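Pilot study result, target chain (319 residues):
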Amino acid sequence: MSKSGRLLAILNLIRTHRSITSKRLAQKCGVSERTIFRDLSALCEVGAPVYFDNGYKLLPGFFLPPINLSVDEYLTFKVALLGSPLKSLKSQSANIHSLIAKIDAAVNSHVPEQLKRRRHTQQISVRNTTDNRVADLTIRLLQKAVDNHNVVTFRYASVSSGTAQREVNPYFIVFRGRAWYLLAYCRKHREMRTFRIDRISRVSFTDRQFEADPSVSPDSYFASSWEVYTGTPVSVKILFRGKAAAVISTGKRHPDEIVKRRPDKTLEYTVSVAGIEEISRWVVGFGGEATVLEPPELAARVRKMVTGTLANYPVRRSK
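Predicted structure:
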């Protein structure tokens, strides 16, 4: 937490407690009591009416008019921030806690009082498979390039084609599925490409800038994607039965999906999706309760995956 964020946090802690000790402030802010004493001195120097009376207190009427948030609005705000994939990045985590401290310092006094009587029962948990130690610095460098429209070069470790040097126009940094990605125009292949952030290394800025295409957005680019992969949309039709049908009937996996219930209680699932690689893995997860009806290449891909899996588990005859 930055010093400015900590000072706001201290003010909010004093405001929301009848009295609070320096030891408690130090514990809440994760610093030493000596640092708290310096912070309290700094607050007094800028005119914050902090005083000590069996604990630290504030003179009434010090804060500006509060933000008029209801308890539900406040909890929605806090759950969204604490559940964001940004929290896993060291640089962004500090910003999140600083922002929460600022909002805490500005909300109506009735909010903290009502929170004492309510359990915090909502939580967002987003699984992140990105190596955040690597991604944190890379994202900061790439975000600077995105903001300034700088052409950049980097080494990229592609799963399919190996490691190679890339030169790109960086457009957006997005979180899709379970990882962070860079959406950029690849100058070698002359098309938009998706690069997984933790496979990027040795980022270098060039002295050139690019003019971004205003028609490109994450929503338009990933419109037909199952999760991350892009390409020519393919019309897919899958038949689900048993427990798989029950799973498919409760929820939505793709914005363009169409689900039809048949008289025999099976479900016909139709969707147009970019490529078959990602959706084939999804189908395999349902085992024998899913059958690909269209297209033939998806059926062949699923068959190949299942056959390869079975080959790893040969049936051993008992002696």
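One observation from the pilot: The mean pLDDT is 87. A full batch analysis is planned for the follow-on phase.
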